[in-house]
Amino acid sequence: MWVSSMISSLWNRLKASSYWQDVAWLVSGTILAQALTFAAMPLFTRLFRPPDFAVANLFSQIVVLVAVVTTVRYENFVQLPKRHRDGWRLLQLVALLGGLAFVILTPVAYVFRATFARWAGEPGLEPWVVWIPITAAVTSLAGAFQGWEQRRRRFRRSSEAEVAAKAAYVGSTLLGRFILPGPGGLVLGTNTWAMVGKLAWLARPSRRRFPFDLAEIRRMGRKLGRLAGAVAVSQTLLACTNFIPLVFIAHAYGPETLGQFALANQSVYLPTALMGNATSSVYYQRACAQWASGRDFSDLWRSTSKRLLIIGIPVYGAAFLLLPTVFPLVFGAKWIVAGRYAAILAVSSFFGFVASPIDRGCLVVGAWWYIPLWHASRTLTNGLLVLVAMSKGWRVESYLYALTALSATMYGVDYWAESIFAFRKPPPKEGAAG
């Protein structure tokens, strides 16, 4: 009886909370989007080989790195300015930077495509390198439009865009499997056309658009330049941190092992995609609003972290126990090794699930120095871990255990630091007494 009463009370509080209603909108869209992916994945794992997944994963990580460098992650700040007009200027800035990067980098990618593929440890990447600049530009612009929709608290539209992206991904991957060689369907489906689908949905005409004004765009770029630079450095380091294990596994253990790792890594982060990303978007929007009004956001930090822990402990506990058995049943017998890898990675994924959604509190309070410092620590320690693994001749499982322990530790540090930022008091407004 008391259980029913507790559930009813919790449900009533959630319905009365606009914060968790907005989270629910994003979560519902993300669940549907990921359901499309999950439904199609057993088919994809039978249509494509592990080395194909290795190529697609490397492509994705390079796209992330290029997107960071070209747009300086200004799309992350569309929600930050007090005026909607200034948020729209940032979106326009992202479009300009992405278009410029596409024009400049596409010829470079074509000329040096073989060199890039050889450096990444996967020759099969060569035909797809030329697609990286356009994919990076579209990805950044889609992120900027999504930030704009969330700034206007149109979380339903943002949620619908996730579904549009995954529908485009599934359709283009299946089509690409039959018209492109090798991993082509996975490469273009996972990245280019998925982002085109999201962008097409978000960029539909709506009210409250502002005219193009280059002087205003430059002003906003300069105003947030230091913060954008800090985020760009940190995101570059993050991309390098994610890229280091891929390149090491490709060179040390081969494309077959990298493909198994890629599927395992993608699968264990599914709960973060379902709940964490949605929570992060709403948390950031609410934290920005409270900080702008002169209040801290410690209440958001407490309630969000508590619910993430309640959800994450049973989900990742079950994943650790069941994934080695579930993987070959769902994805096919050739992915049994990926199931073992996924169980190992589930431990660090749990810490990421709890810490990542609240990791933008430092941006809200203007602590621009923290994010590059934390990411530099991750990149450095991941590089040192690779050196140790190479010198000791570790088996891939030993390397993954050490990688999991390192990631869990770093997420724990981030969780603690973000709690400090959440409790920080905003400076007094100009003109306030005292």
Verbal overview:
- With 434 residues, this protein is an all-alpha fold.
- It has one domain.
- Helix content is 81%, strand content 0%.
- It is built from 17 helices and no strands.
- Helix 2 packs parallel to helix 7 (155-179) and helix 11 crosses helix 14 (336-355).
- The chain is globular.
- The termini are far apart.
Task: Compile the SSE list and pairings.
Elements: H1 2-16, H2 18-47, H3 50-71, H4 84-111, H5 113-120, H6 132-151, H7 155-179, H8 184-202, H9 214-223, H10 225-253, H11 255-268, H12 270-292, H13 298-331, H14 336-355, H15 361-364, H16 370-392, H17 396-422
Helix pairs in contact: 2-7, 2-12, 3-6, 3-8, 3-10, 3-11, 4-6, 4-9, 6-7, 6-8, 7-8, 10-11, 10-16, 11-14, 12-13, 12-14, 13-14, 13-17, 14-17, 16-17
Summarize this structure as a short list of keywords or feature phrases:
434 residues, disordered N terminus, 81% helix, mainly alpha, 0% strand
Sum this structure up briefly:
This protein has helices at residues 2-16, 18-47, 50-71, 84-111, 113-120, 132-151, 155-179, 184-202, 214-223, 225-253, 255-268, 270-292, 298-331, 336-355, 361-364, 370-392, 396-422. By secondary structure, it is mainly α. It has one domain.
The structure class reads: mainly alpha
Total domain count? 1
What composes the largest sheet? none
How would you state the average pLDDT, rounded? 83
Relative helix content:
over 70%
Oligomer: single chain
* Low-pLDDT segments: 1-11
Terminal residue distance: 54 Å
Please compute the radius of gyration using only Cα atoms. Answer: 22 Å
Annotation field: number of helices: 17
Strand content: under 5%
What would the principal axes of the Cα set say about the shape?
globular
Order of helices and strands: HHHHHHHHHHHHHHHHH
